[in-house]
Amino acid sequence: MRGKVVKMRLLFTWLAVTLFFLDNGVSGVDTDEVPVSLKEGDSVTLHTDVKTNQQEKIKWYFNDFRIAEITGDQSKICTDVQCKERFRDRLKLDQTGSLIITNITNTDSGNYTQQIINSKDRTKIFSVSVYGVSAAERDESVKEEESFTLDPGETKNSNDVMTWYFTDILIAEITGDQSKICTDVQCKERFRDRLKLDHQTGSLTIMNIRTTDSGLYKLQIIFSNSSFSITRVKRFSVSVIYSGLSSAAVAGIVVVVVLLVAAAAVAAGVVYCRSRSHTAVPQNPPIQIPLRQRRQRWKW
Fold first, then answer.
1. Domains in the chain, please, with CATH?
2. Bridge partners of residue 114, in order along the sequence
3. Are 86 and 105 in contact (CB under 8 A)?
4. Residue 100, class by beta-carbon neighbours within 10 Å (0-12 exposed, 13-18 middle, 19+ buried)?
5. Can you list the alpha helix ranges (DSSP code H) found in the chain?
6. What is the DSSP letter of 280?
7. Sheet harboring 57-62: ordered strands across?
8. Tens-place pLDDT, residues 160-212
9. Quick one: which of 20, 18, 27 has its CA closest to 122?
């Protein structure tokens, strides 16, 4: 009898420890660890690999304290003060239970544990490291009519998605081995075949740049793999400096001036000739002898 009591106690103890580990994000079943390197300002999605129609119970932990939970279509995010103060509305869950962290800071470095509870419990640990700054805005100055290249400064992979915007207007995009430039009328009217996209690096070149091309250019890069995806945004503030009239414009103005001078000279000549013809001295008319004088002359 005593032996049965000991066995029952051991069984209950094992169950209690197992439940404790499960509730605190630690599981010895199917545990994977994934390293994630980010820059400050990035947004990251930590994937669950769960389909939207699966009714899984998923829990997320950051350094051993729970930050999010989803069961079917019911979700909870940051239910305690500690989580709210740390993340401040920067956490989201999508329909698959994947965790989205926006505007990453260096204080977000640490282990994010994903626990999927079903017939076969799975645990995945994302070891997140945050360094540097990705969203710093760069100021660029260029003279009018020059060609200018905006360089992402990133190593491009084949599955990256790179999208260029000018003041929130989509102007160019690279997806895999496909690229697009100015697919809408507004972009075509503004740039008129003056944009060139380097498919290998993702850099954007603006040819024959104009003062109207001044403004904010934004590049959004999405790096993705099966475990996570990173969204990084780079901003370029471009100022186009007026460089005066071009040589072609100067030549055109000179031709117009020469033609105007020539036309003015011809007009002046015509006016002068006409004025001379009107002011010429008339010849003296023949002297007319009165008829009476002529008769008296014949009488003599």
1. 30-131 (2.60.40.10), 138-241 (2.60.40.10)
2. 60, 124
3. no
4. middle
5. 2-23, 81-87, 185-191, 247-278, 291-299
6. P
7. 31-40, 122-133, 110-117, 57-62, 65-71, 74-77
8. 999 999 998 999 999 988 999 999 899 999 999 999 999 889 999 999 999 99
9. 27
Check: CB of residue 25 under 8 Å from CB of residue 123.
yes
Q: Distance of alpha carbon 249 from its chain centroid, rounded? A: 34
Long-range Cβ contacts of 21-29 (<8 Å, 24+ apart): 22/115, 22/117, 22/121, 24/61, 24/64, 24/66, 25/59, 25/60, 25/61, 25/64, 25/66, 25/113, 25/115, 25/123, 26/113, 26/123, 27/115, 27/121, 27/122, 27/123, 29/120, 29/121, 29/122, 29/123
Beta bridge partners of 235: 137, 218
Q: How far apart are alpha carbons 114 and 31 in whole angstroms?
A: 10
* Rounded Cα–Cα distance for residues 22 and 116 (Å): 10
DSSP states of 118-138: SSS-EEEEEEEEEEEES-PEE
Any residues with CB less than 8 A from the CB of 150 and at least 6 apart, and which? 140, 164, 203, 204, 205, 206, 217, 219, 236, 238
How many whole angstroms separate alpha carbon 94 and alpha carbon 112? 16
Spell out, as residue ranges, where the chain has pLDDT lower than 70. 1-30, 52-55, 119, 134-136, 244-258, 261, 268-300
The residue with tokens 């209690």 is: 16
Of the candidates 71, 67, 69, which has an alpha carbon nearest to the alpha carbon of residue 111? Answer: 67
How many residues are there in the chain? Answer: 300
